[in-house]
Amino acid sequence: MRPFDYSRAATLEEAMAAGPGAALLAGGTNLLDLMKLDVARPASLIDIGHLPGLDRVEEAEGGLRIGALVPNADLARNTAVLARYPAVAEAVLSGASGQLRNAATTGGNVMQETRCSYFQDVLSPCNRREPGTGCGALGGVTRNHAILGWTEGCIATHPSDLCVALAAYDGVVEIAGPGGRREVPMESFHPLPDAEGAGPPPLARGEIITHVRLPECGAMARHARYVKLRERTSFAFAIVSAAAALDVREGRIMAARLALGGVAARPWRCREAEEALEGTAPGEDTFTAAVALSLANAAPSGDNAAKIVLAGRIAVLALSRAALGTPDRLPALPASVFEGDAP
Ligand SMILES: Cc1cc2nc3c(=O)[nH]c(=O)nc-3n(C[C@H](O)[C@H](O)[C@H](O)COP(=O)(O)OP(=O)(O)OC[C@H]3O[C@@H](n4cnc5c(N)ncnc54)[C@H](O)[C@@H]3O)c2cc1C
Ligand code: SF4
Fold first, then answer.
1. CATH code where residue 269 lies
2. Can you tell me the distance from the alpha carbon of 223 to that of 326, in angstroms, rounded to the nearest whole number?
């Protein structure tokens, strides 16, 4: 274990004053694991877990503003989230375990690191962990790696379920920092890799996520689902996942939202599919054709070509389940994708 300093921030200003080598500690479910693996080596931990005012979900101009310290478990059972953004609740419930969701926070979930096993193994080269060393995953085991937006600099995926649903709902990340406040759409918050590596970090030194804001989504609440394909029904990251929300009126899709998880270094918003679906009648053939447009540029980053097929099928399943309607009561653990169209 490497020695490190620990302090608890009482104000946002104290958290933003974090010096070089400092890391923000929220629930610790990702950061502490990475420290134990010797992947993260912070000289000091600034505990932000007690910052005031960031632990609640508030109304915001018809939408919701989620504080960065809202635990994943609280987010999934918040009545406003369940009623208006059910795919967010379903995405959170599909991740990790009950104990982890109690500790994990909204900001920490957004900022969690990739689950690339070469990143987690300090004996492997990794441009993300040590820029300029190369990518150990290239030519390796790439089951969890990208099929969209990757380069030979890095083929990792972002592992969050929550972020996929937030991106589908046009979520906005609110950031405070020494230079002031700024906002970034969830959809583009996580950088895509460049030729050399993982790309620039999403936050500058001293910056902190304070909230994620969800705009009003109206009728889409009645037709929204999150579907996740994984190796176990719980306690496993997505191989691929999809969040879908539809505004269906008189048998026609007025507007569609679709984002994929497990396919890229960020949640992948399927704009082409969304546009193609507008004005159509919901149906599997229509969904399949629309999703194909968004996967036209998908390419395997290794021996993971099957993920392209899986991503298409999971997206069509999410759209089909969304078209059937949001269930009155989301199950405590979302159903397996192998259980047909059962909610
Ligand atoms: C066994 C296991 C299974 C899991 N399965 C899933 C899964 O299926 N789906 C899924 O989505 N997730 C899964 N997770 C990941 C889990 O959701 C994350 O570990 C958790 O959300 C991180 O939140 P935290 O508050 O514990 O973050 P921490 O571990 O405290 O921090 C993580 C990172 O975020 C930074 N950070 C935290 N808060 C802020 C902030 N407000 N502003 C700026 N930076 C911040 C920290 O500095 C650190 O770099 C799993 C984790 C484990 C251990
Ligand atoms: S895919 Fe990215 S995170 Fe994984 S080893 Fe390559 S550079 Fe590192």
1. 3.30.390.50
2. 5
* The two structure tokens encoding residue 194: 């460049």
Nearest CA to ligand 1 atom 23: 108
Q: Is the CB of 95 under 6 A from ligand 1?
A: yes
**Ligand 1 pocket residue status of 162, Cβ below 6 Å:** yes
Query: How far is the centre of ligand 1, averaged over its atoms, from the C-alpha of 111 (Å)?
Result: 6
Task: State the distance from the centre of ligand 1 to the C-alpha of 210, rounded, in angstroms.
Answer: 15
331 within some domain: no
Q: Which domain holds residue 265?
A: 220-324
Query: Using one digit for the tens of pLDDT, what is the confidence trace for 90-119?
Result: 999 999 999 999 999 999 999 999 999 999
Identify the burial level of 11 via C-beta atoms within 10 angstroms of its C-beta, where 0-12 means exposed, 13-18 middle and 19 or more buried: exposed
Binding site membership of 67 for ligand 1 (Cβ less than 6 Å): no
pLDDT in tens, 126-142: 999 999 999 999 999 99
Residue 114 in any domain: the answer is no
Using most ligand atoms within 8 A of CB, pick from 34, 39, 116 the residue to mutate for ligand 2.
Answer: 116
Judge if the beta carbon of residue 128 lies within 6 A of ligand 2.
Answer: yes
Asked whether residue 89 is domain-assigned, the answer is: no
Q: How many CB atoms lie within 10 A of CB 26?
A: 25
Residue type, 108: G
- Residue 317: inside a domain: yes
Minimum-distance ligand to the CA of 28? 1
How crowded is residue 7: how many other Cβ atoms within 10 Å of its Cβ? Answer: 14
What is the pTM for the complete model shown? 0.97
pLDDT, tens digit, for every residue of 37-49? 999 999 999 999 9
- 198-208: pLDDT as tens digits: 999 999 999 99
- Side-chain-side CA neighbours of 246 within 13 Å: the count stands at 30
Work out how many domains the chain is built from and give that number: 1
Among the atoms of ligand 2, which is closest to the Cα of residue 146? 1
